[in-house]
Amino acid sequence: MQPPRRSSRLNRSVSSPSNDEPIWVxxxxxxxxxxxxxxxxxxxxxxxxxxxxxxxxxxxxxxxGGDNHTDVPIEETLLPKEPRYEESRAVFQAMYxxxxxxxxxxxxxLSARFATMAARGRYCILRDKNFVPQxxxxxxxxxxxxxxxxxxxxxxxxxxxxxxxxxxxxIREFVANLPDAExxxxxxxxxxxxxxxxxxxGLINSLYCIPGSEDDPNWRDxxxxxxxxxxxxxxxxx
Length: 238
Hints:
The chain is mainly alpha-helical. The chain has helices at residues 4-13, 30-43, 53-67, 74-77, 81-98, 117-126, 145-154, 158-161, 168-177, 201-207, 224-231, and strands at residues 182-184, 187-192, 195-199. α6 crosses α9. The longest helix is centred in the middle third of the chain and has 18 residues, at 81-98. It is globular. Residues 5-43 and 51-69 have low confidence and may be disordered.
């Protein structure tokens, strides 16, 4: 509310019939706008200027400029998720058919869920920890256009647009068994639910269509805490 003194001045200033429009209305109503437009047209109706060559050139430039904004949206260039996942499953199936022993653990596991006693102990620690909520990049959000372009041209767009449901218990068992994994074919072979899962940077990159790059043979020696801190700008540690 405005102070009474100011309101009295406003009331006196708008007391005449000619100034009875609301002072907070910025846009006139359609009828009022058309009446004002007709009044302005009657007061001044100058003849339209003759078109010039300069004007024609400027129109031509504008038209040519408009043709440059015909880029296909990023979301329309992405491959569907299911065909990519099917191809990834085919790669795993072919690998296991060629090497049936890959599905069997080299050592007798502790149980159907854990490879070792240490893995079960790690699971007990992880059992009470919560997961970080999944997030994915909304491709149609204009506020994230610059981020979208950067991630797309880096080749990592599929890592931020795929979001799938998961079983928390299985993920905790996976993390608990991971330190007991054995090296295999540039990756690792780890025990999970009475089977062995083979993972490698190459297989993960193929799933997310990440451009090929030369693998660092010492990638497993990297400090995971430093990696998490670097990728998150110092906000997240393991």
